[in-house]
Amino acid sequence: MNNKAVKIFLSVILAVVLIFGVVAVVQSVRNDDAPEAVSAAATEGASTEAPEPETQAPKTVTLQFLSVGDNLIHDGIYEQAQKRAGGSGYDFSFCYERVKDTVQKADIATINQETIVAKSYKPSGYPLFNSPTELGDEVVKTGFDVVSMANNHMLDKTTKGLQEAIEFWDSKEGVAHTGAYKDEADLETVEYIEKDGIKIGLVGVTQYTNGLSLPKDSPMKILYTTDTAAIEKKIKAAAASCDMVLVNAHWGSEYTTTPSQDQRNLAAKMAEWGADVIIGHHPHVLQPVEWIDNADGSRTLVAYSLGNFISQQNTAARVIGGMLHYSVTVDKSSGAVTVSDVKLEPIVTHYVSGSHDVQIYPLSQYSDTLAKKQASRIKQSDFSISYIQDFVKDVIPEEFLDL
User: Fold this and answer.
1) Helix-, strand-, coil-residue percentages of the chain, each rounded to 5
2) Would you call 324 exposed, middle or buried from its count of C-beta atoms within 10 A (0-12, 13-18, 19+)?
3) Which of 141, 282, 316, 335 gives the lowest tally of CB atoms within 10 Å of its CB?
């Protein structure tokens, strides 16, 4: 190759090198200035839309609660249910049909099942109660979510009856029960029900079992109001693992509208230990609703007695009960619990003919005509809407009343 050809060849090589060098520099600058654009162009089928923001859980959740009193099933009530079923089984729907919508509207509805539900025993009334399983089925259909079993009649059909009742309520999906325990491990397990991400811890205690007791060799457990150390332990365990704590307490003296000092003392202790709401049973008549102010600035709601939900007791005070409505708001970030919008809605158990027309009426659906029909049976000649309103006003502070 002559000198001229060599010079031409070297010139071509130099030109190619310069061209590739410029391209590399330009590409480097592009990559440095706009890496996202290059990445998007290099990713086949990549979306150019902005990503959706993550949905955050609400910081506060509010639940609507409803609590009622003693579901006390006397002979005439299950006899009525048997007649309404045509003699085959029991149909209790008539008893609850006027309050069913109200119960079902609540996020959480609670009831004290005063009579045991034990399948091996025939239905029976006072003094040793047992209710057919259809009664329990109707409690669930009516819309109750929490069943308290802690009461003075829980041993009416011995430990076998209590065991069968526990098994019955265990079988009801979506329903939680409290106050009766198979053994020590069951007692130490926190009972709870969950709704909208809120865990409601449950505790059930009773002052009496009518002189009956568990055999010494029985593994079963009952939490008595005298067992304050065990109650404290259970409430604190529920408070530690749940968002709020609801206690059902079977206590006080029958047929008195004034709470005893023992009731007030235990309520104050349970509030201190972490109870947010305390619902009382047993007196079969209404007792006051009030707030307990706690040292940390929170307040505990206590209803000392909601009276009878249904029964065939036969005085004016014992046919007047209450459905307690209240809201519970949980702040998920701080853990604070606020109870508000507390209103007691009066109810009346109406019956005239014994085992035919026993039914719960909200006071808003009751009338003087109905009251007049019932007046002679309950030996209260002036029984009327105004009588009921005055009675409730004498017991329940005005701030908690819905008349």
Assistant:
1) 35, 25, 40
2) buried
3) 335
211/213 Cα distance (integer angstroms): 7
Q: Are 269 and 241 in contact (CB under 8 A)?
A: no
Going by the DSSP 8-state scheme, the letter that residue 398 receives in this structure is G
Q: Which residues contact 383 (CB under 8 A, 6 or more apart)?
A: 316, 371, 372, 374, 375
Look up tokens 């009588």; give the residue.
Answer: 387
pLDDT beyond 90 at 55 = no
pLDDT in tens, 86-143: 979 999 999 999 999 999 999 999 999 999 999 999 999 999 999 999 999 999 999 9
Query: Could you please report the per-residue DSSP string of 65-104?
Result: EEEEEEE---HHHHHHHHHHTTTSS---HHHHTTTHHHHH
pLDDT at 52: 59
Count, residues in the chain: 403
Residue in 219, 92, 223, 115 with CA at minimum distance from that of residue 161: 115
Instruction: Spell 232-256 as b/e; 16+ CB within 10 A means b.
Output: eebbebbbeebbbbbbbbbbbeeee
Between the two ends of the chain, the Cα-to-Cα distance in Å is: 117
Alpha-carbon gap, residue 115 to 136, rounded angstroms: 10
Query: Are 64 and 106 within 8 A, CB to CB?
Result: yes
pLDDT of residue 212: 98
pLDDT confidence of 5, banded at 50, 70, 90?
Answer: very low
Q: What is the DSSP string of 292-343?
A: EE-TTS-EEEEES-B-EEE----SHHHHEEEEEEEEEEEETTT--EEEEEEE
- Cβ atoms within 10 Å of 259's Cβ, excluding its own: 20
Contact 361, 347 (CB under 8 A): yes
Return d(Cα 244, Cα 180) in angstroms, integer. Answer: 20
DSSP string over 353-388: SSSS--EEEEGGG--HHHHHHHHTTTT-TT-SHHHH
pTM of the model as a whole: 0.86
Q: Is the pLDDT of residue 48 over 70?
A: no
Q: Which residue has the higher pLDDT, 34 or 78?
A: 78
Can you tell me the distance from the alpha carbon of 40 to that of 399, in angstroms, rounded to the nearest whole number? 64
